[in-house]
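Quick start: what a row looks like.
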Amino acid sequence: MGRITTHVLDTAHGKPGRGISIALYRVSPQQRSLLCERVTNADGRCDQPLLDGDAMEVGTYELDFDIGTYFAGLVPDLPQPPFLSIVTLRFSIADANAHYHVPLVATPWSYSTYRGS
């Protein structure tokens, strides 16, 4: 059964990104539709898949990570507005029966992602 999962790693502090708000959207040429909102747990992960089962469809998705609020709570001298606030990752699902793990590795000034397992 296919699913989308994620987690956040805070490489500035060497720990999981706890308490980060995440929103998942399905994207089409006409609109961006909100599918779910979650907050990361102490391990930087969501307690449930962001999407799974029959809700999985081939197509394009976006994940919004509110890392600006997260880092503002940890680094009091960050400039305002922060360099990064909402990080949006756009990715596509080609196989609705596969597991797509889409993590975010972030600092207040940079980020990267990859397709995990």
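That is the whole record. The CA atoms of residues 26 and 61 lie 4 Å apart. The longest helix spans residues 67-74.
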